[in-house]
Specification:
The complex is a heterodimer of chains A (185) and B (161). By secondary structure, chain A is mainly alpha-helical. Helices cover 85% and strands 0% of the residues of chain A. Chain A is built from seven helices and no strands. Chain A has helices at 2-31, 34-40, 42-73, 79-108, 118-126, 129-170, 176-183. With 161 residues, chain B is mainly alpha-helical. In chain B, 84% of the residues lie in helices and 4% in strands. Chain B has a two-stranded antiparallel sheet. The longest helix of chain B has 37 residues, at 40-76. The chains are: A mainly alpha (185), B mainly alpha (161). Chain A binds chain B through residues 71-72, 75-78, 81, 85, 103, 106-107, 109-112, 114, 151, 153-155, 157-162, 164-165, 167-169, and chain B through 52, 55-56, 59-60, 62-63, 65-67, 69-70, 73-74, 77-79, 87, 90-91, 94-95, 97-99, 101-103, 105-107, 110, 156-161.
Chain lengths: 185, 161
C-alpha cells in the first residue's frame, strides 16, 4: 500500500513540476522577464530568451498529457493493469512530446475572443493604458498555455487508449514484470 | 483528387465507422444471437473473447480518431461553438469507452474464468448499457461533425490567426 502511494506521489510531483515550469515560463514570456535574467546572468538570460517559448509549449503539452493519463487510467481495473497502462502511456507521451507540442502550439494560436481586443479594452478602461496592456499580455499568454494544455489532454486520452489496447491484446503487458520492479515494489 | 487533407479525413471517418459499427454489431446482433443459440458456459467464453477483441479495435479506433482529429482541426482552421462542444463529447466518449473496456471488460474477463454467475450476468448487462450510451454519444458527435461541414453560419470562437 505504501508503494502504491509512492507511484501516485511520483505522478503528483510530475504534475506539480510541469505546472510550475509552465507557470514560470508563461509569466516570463508574457512579461519579458528575460531582461531581468540577463542582468543577473547574461549567458543564461540569452539561453532563457531563446528557449522560454519552447519550455512553455513543452510544459503545457506534457501537463495536458499527464493530467489526461492520470484521469484516463483512473477507470482502468485492476490496479496492476492501471500501473502498466500509466507506465506505458507515460513512455509513449515522452516519445510523442515534441510532435504533440508542435501541433498544440499551432492549434493554440487560434484567436481566443473572435475579433480580439475585448479583454484589452476592458482592462485598459478599468486600469490605465500601461497596466491594462501589460495585464492583457499576461492574460493572452495564460490562455494560450491553457489552450495548449487542453488540446494536449485530448492527445493524452488517445495515448491512454492505445496503452490499454496493448494490455488487452497481450493479455499481459510484455514489460509488466519490469514495470512492477520499478513501480510496484 | 488525392491530398493529405482528404487522406486524413478518410482515415478519420473510417475510424468512426469501425468504432461505431463494431459496437452496434456487438450490442444489437452478436450478443442477442449468442444468448439464444449457445449454452451459458460456451457463451461466456465467446463473449470474453469478443469483448477483448472489440475493446482493442474500439480503443485503437479512438486513438486514431484523436490523431486524425488533430490533423482535421489544423486544416479546419477555427474553433466554433459546435466544434468545442464536439471536443468535449469526444473526451467523454473516450473516458466512457475506457471504463467500458478497461474496467468492466477486464472484470468480465477475470470473472468469466469461473463460469456463468449472477454477478457476471449483471456486469454484462451493465457493459451493454454503457455500450449503448457510448453509441448514442458517438452518433451525436457524427451529427455535430456534419453540421460543422455543412452549416456556414457558425459561431466562431477561435479563428486561426
Amino acid at each position: 500500500m505504501a508503494e502504491k502511494s509512492k507511484f501516485v506521489r511520483l505522478l503528483r510531483w510530475l504534475t506539480i513540476l510541469l505546472a510550475l515550469s509552465g507557470f514560470i515560463s508563461t509569466l516570463s514570456f508574457a512579461t519579458g522577464a528575460e531582461i531581468a535574467v540577463r542582468y543577473l546572468s547574461p549567458a543564461f538570460g540569452a539561453w532563457w530568451d531563446t528557449n522560454e517559448f519552447t519550455i512553455m509549449a513543452w510544459s503545457a503539452s506534457a501537463l495536458g498529457m499527464v493530467v489526461a493519463i492520470r484521469s484516463g487510467a483512473r477507470v482502468v481495473q485492476p490496479l496492476s493493469a492501471r500501473r502498466t497502462a500509466v507506465a506505458l502511456a507515460l513512455a509513449i507521451a515522452a516519445v510523442l512530446l515534441i510532435p504533440v507540442a508542435d501541433a498544440v502550439a499551432k492549434l493554440g494560436r487560434m484567436g481566443w475572443d473572435a475579433d480580439g481586443g475585448t479583454i484589452a479594452r476592458w482592462l485598459i478602461a478599468r486600469l490605465d493604458y500601461e497596466v491594462g496592456t501589460f495585464l492583457d499580455k499576461v492574460v493572452i499568454a495564460g490562455v494560450y498555455f491553457l489552450k495548449m494544455a487542453a488540446f494536449a489532454m485530448l492527445a493524452g486520452l488517445g495515448i491512454v487508449s492505445a496503452s490499454v489496447v496493448v494490455s488487452l491484446v497481450a493479455g499481459k503487458f510484455p514489460f509488466r514484470n519490469r514495470c512492477c520492479e520499478i513501480f510496484c515494489k | 483528387m488525392f491530398s493529405l487533407r482528404i487522406l486524413i479525413l478518410f482515415v478519420h471517418v473510417a475510424a468512426v465507422i469501425v468504432a461505431l459499427g463494431g459496437s452496434l454489431f456487438s450490442t444489437f446482433a452478436l450478443t442477442p444471437i449468442l444468448a439464444r443459440e449457445l449454452e451459458p458456459a460456451i457463451r461466456i467464453k465467446v463473449v470474453r473473447r469478443v469483448i477483448r477483441t472489440l475493446g482493442a479495435i474500439v480503443l485503437t479506433a479512438l486513438a486514431i480518431l484523436v490523431v486524425t482529429g488533430f490533423g482535421n482541426l489544423l486544416y479546419y482552421g477555427a474553433v466554433t461553438l459546435t466544434l468545442a462542444f464536439k471536443l468535449v463529447l469526444v473526451v467523454v466518449v473516450i473516458l466512457v469507452a475506457l471504463f467500458q473496456y478497461a474496467n468492466l471488460g477486464m472484470r468480465i474477463d477475470r470473472m468469466s474464468a469461473g463460469g456463468p454467475s449472477p454477478e457476471l450476468t449483471s456486469i454484462l448487462a451493465r457493459f451493454r448499457r454503457i455500450g449503448i450510451i457510448n453509441g448514442v454519444l458517438v452518433l451525436a458527435i457524427v451529427y455535430l461533425s456534419l453540421t460543422l461541414t455543412r452549416e456556414t453560419n457558425q459561431v466562431v470562437l477561435m479563428p486561426m490567426q
